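Hi there, hope your week has been kind to you so far. Do you reckon you could talk me through the fold, stretch by stretch? I've dropped the whole record in just underneath, so have a look:
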Amino acid sequence: MAITLTRERNGCVAHIRYDNAARGNSFDGELLGKLVDTLEAAALDPMCSVIRLDMAGRHFCGGWDTTSFGDLSASTTESVAAALRSSDEMLGRIRRLPVPVVAGVRGQVIGFGAGLLSAVHLPVAAADTRLSLPEVRFGFAPAGVGHTITQALPRAQAYALLTGATTASGSQLLAWGLVARVVPETELETAVHELVETLAAVPGQALRAVVKVVESSLATGSADESYLASARTIVAGVPAGGVR
């Protein structure tokens, strides 16, 4: 397992690769923490305006590592709820990054992977991507992922996914607003690269301001922070004496 960070385009692009392909890019608490810490470290660089997240191998995310399930029988309801809340808070840290994260999505998106997908700002999916929520087969009700899916999908579709009665294709993820674009699998790398290049051409502070506008609007339902974010870019961008 490895998480690597490289910087490209004079630091404008941070390229993070998560490689746990031997276990389908699954996560546990420690691995999730390391990924989030790496994303935050990348975004701290004032030169960074976009992060590209690559999930190694054939699958975007195989969910939560099932080898940790054996510890659950000795846990209390409160401790399990706290662990679930903690993993959701880590995904919230991804959503609150000051720069957008772009990721290519392919293969399987399982369980917790749906939460990771929802935290990425601009996911681009291969057409043959499949999202599934198999928790009920283990006797579990999805928690944070269940909330995310319920907020994003029509009620009947949320029930169908959360009960394991159906899976979702790339085109369905696009229709539900869970991905920004769907392309043939053979075109995924090119599409992700082109999106990153498009974003890298935008002035960095303007791109950070767009993230602030979108995320603050979603979090608060108010435009107050959007006014300030926009105003800062306008004041910084207009030359003395105004535009002629």
